[in-house]
Every structure is written in C-alpha cells, then in structure tokens.
Recover the amino acids of this structure.
C-alpha cells in the first residue's frame, strides 16, 4: 500500500473537537488564528500558545502526529529567531565581530516564532479532526464560491492518484538503476520523467472530464450534506471566539 | 423481436491529428441484448464507445438510441439512457467519497435529496458496497473501485450500459464477481449491455452476440459463429476461449466431439454426453493424423 500524507488520518477519533460542527469549527478557529498572529507582545503570545495547546489536548490527536506536522513550521520559523536578534536595533546584549545582538531583536524573533507555532497548533484541531471531504463541504456551506469548492474537491481526490503515479514512475526508474545525483544526466532524466507525468495527468484530465460529462456534469455539482448545530457547538464557538476577542481587546486596548 | 436500443449507421470518425479511428461502422443492438465488442488494440473500441453517449461526434453517420437521433437529444436525456463505465476507475471516481460519487449522477439528474439518498442506498445494497459509503477511492482495492464506478453509473438507472474492458486487471475472484453482477443486472433489470473486452474466456458467459471491430465492423454473430470463423480470427488477431482450444486438441487425440464447448459449463455437459453415448468412458489415442492436426492447430493460433 501507498503511504499517503493524510491530514485527516485521525479524524475518526472521538473528542469534543471531533464532535464540533465543522462549519462553526472552521469559522471559530480562523478568527482565533487571526487574533493569535496579531498579538503584540511575548506575554500575550505565550498565553495564546497555552490556549492553542489546550485546544490541541482537547482534540486528543496523538502527540507524534501533531509534532510531525508542527516540525515543518519550525523550518520556516527558525531563521527568524536566528536573524531577527541581529537585525533589529536596540539594547545590545553582546557584540561578535561587529554583529550586535539586541534584546529587542531577540524578543521580536521569539514573538514571531511563538505566534507561528500557536497558529499552526490551532490548525490541527481545526482541520485534522474532520474528514477532509467534510471540511470541503463545510467550506461550501460557508458560501465559499462553488468554483473553489470544486477545485478543492478534485484536487483532494486526484492528489492521491498523482502521488501513486509519481511513486510508480520513480520506482520504475529506480528499478532500472537510476540514482539521484546532481549531474546533468540525472537532471535531464528527471525532467523527462516529470514531462511524462505531466502529459499523463493532462490525458487523465481529458478522460475525467469525459466521465464527468457522462454522468451529467454541468459545472455546478452539489453534494448532499447534513450539518446541524447543537448546544455544545454554540458553547465551543463562544469559548473559542471569546478567547480570540479577549486577546484582541487586551492587545489593542 | 425487441425494440432497437442502439442503431449505428455508417459512422466514421477521425481524430484531430488525422488518425482514422472509425470508418463506416454499423451496429444494431436490441433491448435487453448483451453485446460484446471485440477487436485488437487500437481497433477503435474505446473511440466507438465514446460515440454512444455523444462524448465524441462522428464526422459522418448517425446514431439512434431507442429510435431517437442522438444528435437531437439533450445531454440530460442521453445521460439518463446510456450509462458508461470507463476502463480506469480512477478516471471515473472523482468525488472524495464513494457516497458522494454514487450520489453525483442522481443529483445531476435533478432528483430531490431524499430520492438521491434512496437511490444511493439501493445501489450500494445491490452491488454489495455496504460499509464503503464514507471511504475515499484511494483506500479501495482495484476491484472495489471497479465495482464502485459501476455503482456510480447504475445509480442513474440507465437502460443501456456500456462498459470498457470491465474485467481487465481484476483478480480471478473479482473478475467472476463482476461478470456475475453484469449478468444479474441484465437479467433482473433488462439492461442492454455493450461490453468491450479482450477477455475471451469471459465472452461465452457475457455475450448473446459479438461484434468484431477493426476500424470498421468486420463481423457479427453468436460467440459460436465468431469463434468458428478461423479466417476472421486470424486476420484480426482475435483469440478464442481456452476451453475451446483444449477441446480442439482433444479432438485431434480422437475425442468424438461434435460440438466444441466455449465455456466450462458447456464442457462439463458435453463430456457427460460423450461418455454416456460411448458406454461409460471416453477414449483418447494417437492416430496417424494426430501430429498433423496438432501442427495445424498450432499454426491457426500463431498470429505472425
Ligand atoms: N485522443 C486521440 N488522438 C489521436 N488518436 C487517438 C486518440 N485516442 C485514440 N487514438 C487512436 O485511435 C485509434 C483507436 O484507438 P482506441 O479507440 O483507443 O482503440 P482501442 O480502444 O480499440 O484499443 C488508435 O490508433 C489510437 O492510437
Ligand atoms: Mg480501449
């Protein structure tokens, strides 16, 4: 079997976040994420981080799974923590061959990192606790333009087909002794393989369109959805948005 | 005779790059018939199929579906009459879950929500897909995907079903199951079938009548008519069922067999009959012509 990188691998667990209505969940968490990336100081950033971690705990997602997704963000954030302290001017902490590290810079670097970390942690209870197709449908229910919803839907479906095709091509190349090296030959070969993949995807696109038409596709497909807000959904919505609003009030009051 | 379900007259088609895929193709299919379309690779089978629901439109010729000119039918009307199961289920299962996929067609037909749900449920039950509703296609085996794509088409309740190589790449069990499902749909619901296949061993089970295509229709008849037409088979690189070949060999070894069987079932009843008439046993031996006959037999199936 193929190992798919699935964000909704643990969507069948049971937790308050899993039971939370997908529409309300998306709206509430998006508001909270905005609030979190806007906090102006470290103290509030850490409060936001603690909040995010609490929501993650409430979602009962396995820690390993969570860390797997969070670690990518670190690759983006680490440069900030390293560069910021040297580029922002202010109180000097130390001087190294003309490079000055400042207190303000360090604080700003950490602030950026903590905000990003909190935001990414919040994405997990928002997205990883619902089957992805349900999330897409929820976006449709939230009046996202039909065109975008369709694009998400087909992309979600065919990304897996593409992954399999890519792996197949890659294995076929490896089976004939191809090794990834940084020489012209390897680059050319990869270029050609990607070209083939592209052509094949294009042809598949043609066939999928034929199949769509064969079942009466008219560019405005609907899906059947059953969403219903219950009391607990309202409670969670109020809690999450309330937390967001509090952060904003304290930040800018 | 039943009503005509499909009539194709003088159909020709050329791809934009100049490939003449079809030339002067004719076909008549009656309601409730099971037609198998055979032909070597590149014979134009898929191209022909795509004409039957108006996906491709021939430069010449005419197609009628239940007496109505396809050119004059509305898209919804065609889609309701002619269901098409494509060869690669990944082309056909485009929704995130099996439920959504099966519901896709009925929704497009403009059915109400509870009718759609009813149809989906019914189709899922009749094809044995219970429990797969919320699964994504990428979590299904090839055989399951194939069944799901058939279900997605069946949910639209078409009167004609066109299938492109339905048994290709299936393991023996899924293959037998799918053949069973196709025949059951034909028997129970009277659905007219046009089946493109390379699977010669499945033909006796699937075909009331065969059409042989090689850019143009080169022959039609019962499986027996076609499989006994050596010249046609050889010219067009067509194969015959293994059972048939085996009994040709047995005949060279002196088996007194008048009617060569096409399927295992026929073989069993045929053998039983021979044993009965020969007094409780069958008799095989090597006689003076055996080697010549085997040689002839070999050359008949060598397509060089
Ligand atoms: N999109 C296309 N453009 C040009 N030529 C095509 C296209 N699709 C098929 N053909 C050509 O048309 C002929 C018939 O193809 P096809 O209908 O796929 O045959 P079959 O299904 O019997 O194997 C072949 O020669 C094939 O190369
Ligand atoms: Mg084909």
């Amino acid at each position: 079997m193929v190992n798919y990188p699935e964000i909704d691998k643990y969507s069948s667990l049971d937790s308050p976040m899993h039971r939370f209505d997908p529409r309300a969940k998306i709206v509430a968490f998006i508001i909270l994420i905005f609030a979190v990336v806007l906090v102006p100081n470290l103290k509030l950033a850490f409060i936001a981080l603690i909040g995010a971690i609490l929501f993650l705990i409430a979602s009962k997602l396995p820690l390993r799974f969570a860390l797997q997704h969070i670690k990518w963000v670190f690759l983006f954030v680490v440069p900030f923590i390293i560069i910021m302290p040297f580029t922002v001017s202010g109180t000097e902490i130390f001087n190294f061959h003309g490079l000055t590290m400042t207190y303000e810079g360090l604080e700003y670097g950490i602030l950026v990192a903590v905000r990003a970390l909190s935001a990414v942690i919040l994405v997990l209870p928002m997205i990883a606790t619902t089957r992805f197709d349900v999330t897409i449908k929820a976006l449709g229910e939230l009046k996202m333009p039909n065109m975008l919803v369709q694009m998400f839907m087909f992309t979600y479906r065919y990304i897996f087909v593409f992954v399999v095709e890519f792996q197949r091509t890659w294995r076929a190349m490896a089976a004939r002794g191809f090794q990834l090296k940084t020489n012209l030959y390897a680059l050319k070969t990869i270029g050609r393989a990607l070209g083939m993949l592209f052509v094949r995807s294009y042809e598949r696109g043609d066939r999928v369109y034929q199949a769509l038409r064969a079942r009466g596709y008219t560019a405005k497909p609907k899906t059947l959805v059953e969403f219903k807000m219950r009391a607990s959904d309202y409670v969670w919505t109020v809690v999450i948005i309330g937390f967001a609003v509090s952060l904003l009030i304290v930040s800018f009051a | 005779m039943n009503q005509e379900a499909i009539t194709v007259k003088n159909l020709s088609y050329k791809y934009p790059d100049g490939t003449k895929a079809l030339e002067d193709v004719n076909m008549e299919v009656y309601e409730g018939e099971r037609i198998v379309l055979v032909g070597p690779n590149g014979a134009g089978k898929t191209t022909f199929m795509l004409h039957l629901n108006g996906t491709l439109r021939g430069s010449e010729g005419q197609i009628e579906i239940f007496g109505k000119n396809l050119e004059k039918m509305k898209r919804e009307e065609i889609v309701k009459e002619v269901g098409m199961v494509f060869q690669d289920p990944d082309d056909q299962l485009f929704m995130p879950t099996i439920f959504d996929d099966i519901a896709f067609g009925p929704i497009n037909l403009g059915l109400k929500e509870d009718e759609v749900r009813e149809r989906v449920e019914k189709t899922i039950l009749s094809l044995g897909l219970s429990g797969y509703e919320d699964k994504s296609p990428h979590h299904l085996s090839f055989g399951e995907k194939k069944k799901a794509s058939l279900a997605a088409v069946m949910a639209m309740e078409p009167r004609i079903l066109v299938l492109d190589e339905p048994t290709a790449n299936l393991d023996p069990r899924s293959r037998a199951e799918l053949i069973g499902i196709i025949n059951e749909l034909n028997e129970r619901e009277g659905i007219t079938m046009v089946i493109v296949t390379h699977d010669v061993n499945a033909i006796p089970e699937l075909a009331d009548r065969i059409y042989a295509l090689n850019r143009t229709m080169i022959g039609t008849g019962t499986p027996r008519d076609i499989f006994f037409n050596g010249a046609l088979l050889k010219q067009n690189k067509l194969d015959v069922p293994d059972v048939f070949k085996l009994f040709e060999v047995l005949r060279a070894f002196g088996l007194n067999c008048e009617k060569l069987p096409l399927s295992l079932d026929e073989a069993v009843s045929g053998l039983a009959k021979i044993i009965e008439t020969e007094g409780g046993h069958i008799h095989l031996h090597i006689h003076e012509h055996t080697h010549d006959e085997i040689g002839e037999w070999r050359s008949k199936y060598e397509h060089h």
